[in-house]
Amino acid sequence: MSFVSFKGTREGLSITLGDGGWREMMSELTNQLGRPSAQSFFRGARVLLETGGRAVAVTQIEELIALLAQHDMTLVSVMGEAHAQANFNQLRATIPPPELLAEETRAAQARETEPLVIRRTIRSGQVVRHAGMVIVLGDVNPGAEVIANGDVIVWGKLRGVVHAGAAGDLRATVGALILMPTQLRIGDHIARAPDEKRVLRWPAEIARVRDGQIIVEPWGTS
Amino acid sequence: MPGQVLTITSGKGGVGKTTTTANLGVALARRGKRVVCLDADIGLRNLDVVMGLENRIVFDLVDVIEGHAKLRQALIKDKRLPELHLLPAAQKRDKTAVTSEQMIALCNDLKKEFDFILIDSPAGIESGFKYSIAPADRVIVVVTPEVSSVRDADRVIGLVESQEKPSPQ
Ligand SMILES: Nc1ncnc2c1ncn2[C@@H]1O[C@H](COP(=O)(O)OP(=O)(O)OP(=O)(O)O)[C@@H](O)[C@H]1O
Ligand SMILES: [Mg+2]
User: Fold this and answer.
1) Which atom number of ligand 1 is nearest to the Cα of residue B123?
2) What's the whole-model pTM score?
3) What is the pLDDT of residue A137?
């Protein structure tokens, strides 16, 4: 018999509480999260708690937050019973934002995630987000954005906004046959397109963070 | 004295709203007025390109309205004319991202810091036009010497007057 159930959603991992007692649910959750197969799956997840009709006390929510934190998970919202929601909102101020949690874990996760390959041009107003590396076999036009927790490689013209290492990984790089982004971000560093024309170097260029700033060099020099 | 909100609109597309907004902004800033040009064409922004500030956009109008960024973070200051500022539109959203009430509230904040708020309205008479007109103290209608442009302008003037705003220029 199961007291808690899990479901992956677009916003994060949804955990639904069943009818059992609080103790039983917590011990089941502890077991579930502790399983070796679950470790990498749940790590870093944003959690949405669905309480159903159950009233959850402040101390119980605190207990849950602490348990999730052991697995690098963050409680981001509580849905269902009104008191449970109010109690969560009261606590919310004390929860560190997910960005600050486990930056290293996220960088590691980005390296493990399958790359996303896009075989078309990304146009103005389109946004591509991915937890790993992004490879574009096409152009990235002005007004388009590519945001990746890993590296970004564009086999074409990169003229839009690009953000590599978006979860904070400063080792991420951005490569393109023609590297002319409107804005290039790596981790929390930002570089802007120069106002005057720049000579592009053959056969391609790569941008990376070195000594605290973004530099661009010809492909294959290091 | 609080600033004035001027909305530049036309009904018909491609008649020079964006060009007029940018040039009016430059002209007023050169006279020492504190000016912000606000691109209200969400999803089809142009003003940033015309003003040469595209590569400096980090946050936009929708980020400010949704509370993801402070006004101060989203305003881009022109390096050549320090009195001139741009509040860029979002490109990855559409006109439903903003309401008239939100635009009025935003302009009330801007009025405290700027002499002129110039709103570059999108073409058409739908929601984008409506939220661009809502905060306006005055409206400027751009017209080209073509029958279709003149007809559209007439329609727009009627719509503006029905909002109990002063007759457009
Ligand atoms: N006074 C003018 N004389 C000649 N050409 C002009 C003038 N003003 C604008 N143009 C040209 O007209 C074209 C459209 O201008 P602009 O983009 O400003 O129009 P718009 O009304 O903002 O268009 P949209 O409805 O798409 O937003 C541009 O090529 C611009 O250079
Ligand atoms: Mg325009």
Assistant:
1) 25
2) 0.69
3) 96
Nearest CA to ligand 1 atom 1: B16
Distance of CA A41 to the CA centre of its chain: 14
In chain A, domain spans = 4-95, 111-218
Å between B56 CA and nearest CA of chain A: 7
Q: Determine whether the interchain pair B57/A192 forms a contact, defined as Cβ–Cβ distance below 8 Å.
A: no
Rounded to 10 deg, the angle between the A22-34 and A58-70 helix axes is 10
List the one residue out of A105, A126, A125, A129 whose CA is nearest residue A116.
Answer: A129
| Tens digits of residue pLDDT in B13-61 | 999 999 999 999 999 999 999 999 999 999 999 999 999 999 999 999 9
Distance B13 CA to ligand 2 centre (A): 7
At A222 the pLDDT is 65
Query: At CB < 8 A and 24+ separation, what contacts does B19-24 make?
Result: B19/B50, B20/B140, B20/B142, B21/B47, B21/B118, B21/B119, B21/B120, B22/B47, B22/B50, B22/B51, B24/B118, B24/B140
Question: What digits encode the pLDDT tens for the residues A107-139?
Answer: 777 777 889 999 988 988 888 888 899 999 999
Give the closest-approach CA distance of B42 to chain A in angstroms.
10
Evaluate whether the domain defined by A4-95 bears CATH number 3.30.70.
yes
| Nearest alpha carbon, ligand 1 atom 19 | B16
DSSP annotation of B163? T
Contact yes or no for A193 and B91 at CB 8 A: no
CATH code assigned to A111-218: 2.160.20.70
- Look at A176 and A65; give whichever has higher pLDDT: A176
For residue A100, name the pLDDT band (cuts at 50, 70, 90). very low
The interface predicted TM-score of the complex, written ipTM, equals 0.73
Question: Is A183 within 8 Å of B55 when comparing Cβ atoms?
Answer: yes
* CB neighbour class for A58 (10 Å; exposed up to 12, middle 13-18, buried from 19): middle
- Whether B24 contacts B115, CB under 8 Å: no
Kindly report, residue by residue over B55-81, the tens digit of the pLDDT.
999 999 999 999 999 999 999 999 999
Phi-psi region of A54 (alpha: psi -120 to 50; beta: other; left: phi over 0): beta
